[in-house]
Specification:
binds zinc ion, mainly alpha, 14 helices, globular
């Protein structure tokens, strides 16, 4: 159960769909904007607006969670995942393969990244706002090195475009952990495992939008071009995922709410000069 909660977490599925709602923070900010309009009148408006002002301040506090605080939460959340998932030890063959593929990408595009393997048959990968990228053994079994690099590029895209930060903001704002922290200090305190587990569920219940997925697909492709990798590999990775569609329970669920991998493969094909 713990395991399920964690898998649920972060950005569930590299290619078939990662978790998060686009504009999570944007909607929070527009709430703040309208709240601030109310507070704007407060100076002269007197006590009539007092309750509104109080409510507005609550929204304001929630929406102004700093990136620093979110990164701290993401780090704790990732550490929790690494404790509850089966992390491949450094000498494990999956860990060694991933290390070989990613060693030149730990400082990619201004980001500080770390890559590890979860020894699970799930066909999955995810990223969190602290720059951690995790790849599941099930995905590694399915993909050749170039395809795996394409998936990794896609995940880096979610970090670079701050989709992971936005996802964490949305989940954290709604979490009990945030309320406890806000009540005390305003900076990220140490969250209990139960709070991190609940945060994971919130992350899972949100999803990256199709436009965020498309943006990350494009980032992945640019990543392949930049490093002179095989630009057709993302297309073939999507084709492989499309072939799995409907065969695997968990995958099917994720596919239902995300762009289908066949269309994404076609898009990658079209962007790399059509059929080859
Ligand atoms: Zn994704």
């Amino acid at each position: 159960m713990k395991k399920m909660t964690y898998i649920a977490l972060a950005c569930a599925l590299a290619l078939t769909g990662c978790a998060t709602t686009e504009g999570g923070s944007a909607s929070g900010l527009s709430a703040v904007a309208s709240a601030l309009n109310t507070t704007g009148a407060a100076g002269s408006g007197g006590s009539k607006t007092e309750n509104k002002v109080g409510a507005a301040m609550d929204v304001f506090k929630a929406a102004t969670v700093s990136d620093e605080e979110l990164k701290s939460v993401a780090l704790q959340y990732r550490a929790y995942g690494d404790r509850t998932e089966k992390l491949a030890p450094p000498k494990n063959k999956y860990a060694q393969r991933l290390e070989r593929l990613t060693r030149k990408h730990v400082n990619e595009d201004g980001l500080q990244l770390n890559f590890k393997v979860y020894l699970s048959k799930d066909v999955n990968a995810n990223a969190t706002a602290d720059g951690s990228i995790r790849v599941y053994a099930g995905l590694m079994d399915m993909m050749n090195d170039q395809e795996l690099l394409g998936v990794i590029g896609h995940e880096i895209g979610h970090v670079k475009h701050a989709h992971t930060m936005s996802a964490m903001r949305t989940a954290y704002m709604a979490s009990a952990g945030r309320k406890a922290v806000a009540a005390s200090s305003g900076t990220a305190a140490k969250l209990a495992d139960s709070e991190l587990g609940a945060l994971g569920e919130k992350l899972f219940n949100s999803q990256f939008s199709q436009s965020q997925e498309t943006e990350s697909d494009d980032y992945g492709l640019a990543f392949m071009q930049k490093h002179k990798y095989n630009v057709k590999a993302l297309e073939s990775a999507f084709r492989k995922l499309a072939s799995l569609s409907g065969k695997q329970g968990g995958l099917e669920q994720m596919l239902s709410s995300h762009p289908d991998p066949g269309s994404r493969a076609d898009r990658m094909r079209d962007k790399t000069g059509g059929k080859k």
